[in-house]
Specification:
The chain is α/β, with parallel strands linked by helices. It has one domain: Rossmann fold (3-Layer(aba) Sandwich), CATH 3.40.50. It contains 9 helices and 7 strands. Strands 3-2-1-4-5-7-6 form a 7-stranded mixed sheet, with helices on both faces. The N terminus is likely disordered.
């Protein structure tokens, strides 16, 4: 699925709801997800395209790539389209059956040398194998906070020396004035993309209990604690950020220069 592929228009929260239930990646969300994500995340197409371009630099021949929290497989397909390395397998993981079903259909529609295996499972319990690249694209924010450190540690341990993790997240900020300003700018962005104040308000309520945000500093500290030698923010717009986290090459890990 390309980031700009047409889909059903997102109207999940367009009508007043007597009770706003917790947000879930169910069938009604999966049906409108491409439109929802493109109108809700600033720079989403750029992030997806860059993930594909990074794959050309970091994915090694005969290695695995993990797309954790793959939704409809946009990152997986960007990697599949850009990467020229031979013998690569992409493993796309999501815990939503509705997303996995549609992701598999999208993957099957694209030809190419790289195989994509789509699986419905919890990334917290996933038994990862050695890999050269991992993508967490707006995924960790939906994972219970107490599981996040162990997931990042597991990723670091399974990445090959010189391997890459791309992690994108919606964030909060310690400075309340700055945080509220960025939230206001983000809501204006959504209004400009056709969402009403009702939709914005109801979706925000739906996400309140399921999207637990970290600060950029907390993300960087977690990545550093896990052992990543380079952690670099490469994208930011309002309260959305993406980082590159690199595992040191083998010689560096052994203390050589």
């Amino acid at each position: 699925m390309k980031a700009n592929q047409p889909s059903q228009r997102d109207s999940v929260y367009a009508q007043p709801l007597k009770k706003v239930s917790d947000f879930a990646f169910d069938t009604k969300v999966a049906d409108v997800f491409p439109d929802m994500i493109s109108r809700s995340i600033p720079g989403y197409a750029t992030i997806i395209d860059t993930i594909g371009r990074l794959a050309t630099r970091y994915v090694r021949p005969n290695s695995r790539v993990y797309d954790l929290g793959c939704s409809l497989g946009a990152a997986s397909l960007a990697i599949k389209q850009h990467c020229q390395a031979e013998g690569v397998e992409i493993i796309a993981i999501d815990n939503s059956e509705a997303m996995v079903e549609r992701c598999q259909n999208y993957v099957n529609a694209y030809r190419g040398e790289i195989s994509v295996h789509v699986e419905c499972t919890d990334i917290a319990t996933l038994e990862m194998q050695p890999c050269s690249m991992v993508v967490l694209n707006f995924t960790l924010q939906f994972v219970p906070p107490e599981q996040r450190d162990s997931i990042i540690q597991k990723i670091f341990e399974q990445l090959q020396p010189g391997g890459l993790l791309v992690i994108s997240e919606k964030v909060k900020h310690h400075d309340n004035v700055a945080d509220e300003l960025l939230i206001d700018l983000y809501h204006e962005f959504k209004r400009n993309n056709g969402y009403s104040d009702l939709e914005i308000s109801q979706k925000r309520a739906a996400l309140e209990n399921v999207m637990r945000l970290n600060t950029p500093e907390e993300h960087i500290q977690r990545l550093t604690n896990a052992g990543f030698s380079t952690v670099q923010e490469w994208f930011r717009c309002f309260n959305f950020t993406s980082w590159l986290a690199l595992k040191a090459p083998e010689a560096t890990q052994h203390g050589e220069k």
